[in-house]
Every structure is written in structure tokens, then in C-alpha cells.
Amino acid sequence: MGSKSFSEAMRLCSGPGNRRHFLQAGLAGFTGLSLPGMLRLRAEHPSAVRPSSTAVIMVWLPGGCSQLDTYDPKPGASSEYRGPFRTIPTKISGLHFTELLPRQAALADKITTVRSMTQTAPGHPAGSMQMLSGDMATQDKPKPKYPDWMCATNYLRSQQIARTNPLPRYVGINPPLEYNGPAYVGDAYQPFTVSGDPSLPTFSVPNLGVSNPGELARLQRRADLRQRLDGLQRVVDRQLEMEALDQFEAQAMMLLTDPRAKDAFDLSREDDKTRDRYGRNAWGQQLLMARRLVEAGVDIVTTQLSGPLCGRVGNWDDHAVNHHVFDALRFRADAYDQAVAALIEDVFDRGLDKRVLVVVTGEFGHTPKISYAASTGAGNASGPAGTQQPGRDHWPAAFSNIWFGGGIQPGQIVGATDSRAEAVIDRRCTAHDFLATIYHHLGIDSSRVTIQDFAGRPTHLVENGRPIPELIG
Asked: 145, 295, 318, 455 — which has fewest CB within 10 A?
């Protein structure tokens, strides 16, 4: 939950002037019912946001995954494009993956493979913003113009559904935060963030499930004191706002004091066989935690597969200067294939396949034509500095992602690319379609819902996208 210590966070809320700052900084993303916002939203959009118990897990591959070397191989292409990996059949007739993904290939009848994703931004910031918030600018910039789908959903559901579950609506497990954010919905709707490697014996999520009686009593005394102090300042025209803030704070207190919150994050409650099946590494345990959280009632979980398991530079950005692209794909393939396959199995075996939608994607793919350049440094999946090695660069024109759960018909193939995976030739799916699909599962009509921007203008969630028909449950 960020880097602030518990005592430091409590010191921030020691008086009424800092209550909102405490809640946003120390418990960002754990929001309650905003009554004025709820009334406004219901008046503007009486049926555009429907109450829903559905959830989404997004597994983010920062830097993008090479489509040719995973889900859209082109064995007939020349060696300038093809890469070294064999293709293998999947559970679906006519669908082949590469040899790097044998576990997922064996479960292909449970997933839908989209081979025709496309967007228009060549850089990581702009590409991520297109996919996550629908900001269609093609030039890189520090922050998106629009809130990402995770923060927007957190905001919209907070206006519609009173929260009694002690867990946040939106949790990020080592989430993608660099190129997205809440924009004009406000910092309160950011994720409750879990950082670190959950496979380590020393891993813990701080400030959850406080059980010491003395600490619980101290928390309650502080909350009571704040309530009395705030009562001195209340006036009639602010009463609704303060009532909404009180509910916001009450749920923050639940997160701190309810043991159910701590239990949901506690991987030791899983048996050893299950933990082994996901993989005793950061990625495997992140996806296991994601499954536990949606089972416990979290609406949105994002987690990115990055760090040491990716190779020298810690992401999927396999330029030749960063990685030997094929060594990097081999290096990360086993952990990736195992973790995702285990999540696929659990979503169906545990009866989550109607309520929970999972998407595994990055911001773009990689260039079909292999490039060569000198490595900038030695490390996992990279030769010593100066070594000429192969790489693939950014390619937003055509890439793949996989989807499962969400009530969608499994075992489908959506779209196709040309003989080199350079261009979409069938069923073009845009970043806005991607977003509209996720919103649809979450009960949000993205073609109708607007949120007021910083200037007070009603702004649509998605301008031109439509839910991808094959991905509608």
C-alpha cells in the first residue's frame, strides 16, 4: 500500500484539515459511496451504468510481446522475419502457438486469441495511454488526458454501489502505473497498490487486518476524535459531502481493521500444490494473488509481469540494444506460460469463468522484421556490451492478446494478420474496441457514459469503440 509507514499515515490524519489527504495518500483507491456524485450520475445516465458483480483481471506485459514468437507465428515467412521457434498445435484445430507456450496451447479451448489488435502510437507512453485510457494522441507525453479504465470504473462503481466488503474495488499488484492514471476523476480512485515479490518468505502487505487490541483501540479513538472535530465545522450546505466522506473513511477503517482484508492477500492460505502450480516466482504468485482477490470481491486487479524474470532490462522491450530477443523470450517463457496457464485453469475450475474476465496484453507488438544492433550491457538474455544481437522493435500496427472467462465463448480465434504479421487483414480491433469490451463486461455502457473533465465538460469514456462481439458473454 505504498511506502508510508502506518504511524506516518496516521499522523497525516491527526486533524480535520488532513482527513481527505490521509485517505487519498494512505488508502488511495479504496473509495466509498459519494452521494452527490451518485445523484448526479443517476440523473445523467439512468441506465448506462448498471449494478454488477463482475470483475476484471488485466495481466500487463510492459514493452509489448512479440506476436510472431508467441500467439501468431508465421512458419512460412523468411528467416528475416520468422525467428527460431517451432510452431506447435493447440487444442483448437488450425490454431498454432510457438513452442514457448505448451501449457497455454493445451488450454487453448478455454481462451480466445485475438490476433488483430492495432493502435497508432509507436512509443511506450502513448501506446499505453491508447490501450488503457483511450487517449489517441500518438506523441509520447507524461500523463494521459483521460482516466484509465481501471480508475474510471472504480469511480463509476463508487457512485452506484455502496461498499460493504472491506477490500478495495481496485487493487494493483506491482501494477502498470507509469503511463496511466486517474486524470480528472481524482487520486482517490487510484489502486490500492501491493509492491514487492509475493513469492518471498518475507513478503507482506502492510497496514492490513490490524489485530492487536491496543492498536485497534487507538485507531478507534483517533476516528472518534476526528468525527467530533469535524462536527464543529459542518454546515448545512456541506452535509451531503461530509456524509459521503464519512462512509469513505468508514471503509478505510474496515480495510485497516477487518481480518478478512488481510486473509485475502495471504498466499500462505493456499496449499503448496496450488502455489507450485502457478510457479514459486514473482509472476506465478502475483497471478495467484489476483485470483484470490477477485474471489474475495475485488472488482479490478491489474498486475504487470516485469522485473528480473524478463531479462536484463526488466521488461518485454526486446530491442537488440536491450536483449537478444530470442534468448529473452526463452528466458521468460516458462514462468510466463506456467503462471498464465494456472490462472486459466483456476478461472474455470473454481467457477469464476462467468463473473471474471481476464485479458493478457501489452501496449503493442514487435516488428516482424528482425533487426540487429550492439548490446548496451551484459546480463540475463543480453550479451556483453558491443555484442551484435537480434532484436525486435515497437510495432503497434498488428499484435495479439488473449482473453478468457467473462462468460465469453472459449476457443475462438479473432482476426488475422498477413503472412508476416505486419498488418491486420481481418477483424481489425482498435484500442477503443479493447476498452469498450472491458467496460461492457463491467456493466458500463461506454458509448453513453460521460465523466466531467477538469473544465466541467462531460467527456465520454470511449469515443468510437464497440465491444468486440466474440468477447461479449
From this structure: 455
The gap from C-alpha 37 to its chain's centroid, in whole angstroms, comes to 25
The dihedral built from the CA positions of residue 361, 365, 371 and 377, taken in this order, carries a sign that is negative
d(CA 219, CA 256): 9
Among residues 314, 283, 69, which one has the least CA distance to residue 178? 314
Residue 220 pLDDT more than 80? Answer: no
- Extract the C-alpha cell encoding 255: 480495510
CB–CB of 300/322 below 8 Å?
no
Distance between CA atoms of 275 and 271, rounded to whole angstroms? 7
Cα–Cα–Cα angle for 146, 152, 155, rounded to 5 degrees: 135
Q: What are 221-276's pLDDT values in tens digits?
A: 544 544 544 444 444 344 444 444 454 555 566 666 677 888 999 999 999 999 99
Bridge partners, 112 (sequence order): 403
Whether the per-residue pLDDT at 35 is higher than 90: the answer is: no
**CA–CA distance from 272 to each of 197, 267, 269, 285, 303 (Å)?**
17, 10, 9, 12, 22
Residue 174 is placed in which grid cell? 506491482
Quick one: pLDDT band at residue 295, thresholds 50, 70, 90? very high
Give the contacts of 269 (CB within 8 A, at least 6 positions apart). Answer: 263, 292
Q: Residues 159, 163, 168, 169: is their CA dihedral positive or negative?
A: negative
pLDDT confidence bin for 467, thresholds 50/70/90: very high
Cβ proximity of 33 and 193 under 8 Å: no
b/e map of 308-329 (b: 16 or more CB within 10 Å)?
ebbbbbbbbbbbbbbbbbbbbb
Write down the mean pLDDT value for the chain: 85
Burial code of 342-378, b = ≥16 C-beta within 10 A, e = fewer? bbbebbeeeebbebbbbbbbbbbbbbbebbeeebbee
Cβ neighbours of 23 (radius 10 Å): 23
Question: Which residues have a Cβ under 8 Å from the Cβ of 407 and sit 6 or more positions away?
Answer: 353, 354, 357, 441, 473
| Beta carbons within 8 Å of 456's beta carbon, 6+ residues apart | none
Contact 106, 89 (CB under 8 A): no
- The answer to whether 468 and 439 are in contact (CB under 8 A) is no
What are the structural domains, with CATH classification, of the chain? 54-200+272-471 (3.40.720)
At residue 166 the predicted structure's pLDDT band, cuts being 50, 70 and 90, is confident
Predicted pLDDT at 347: 98
Q: Please give the share of the chain, as a percent, with pLDDT higher than 90.
A: 73
Q: What confidence score (pLDDT) does residue 447 get? A: 92
Is the CB of residue 414 less than 8 Å from the CB of residue 468? yes
Task: Say how far apart CA 382 and CA 229 lie, in whole Å.
Answer: 59
With residue 346 as reference, give the H or E element that holds it: helix 325-349
Q: How far apart are CA 313 and CA 393, in angstroms?
A: 15
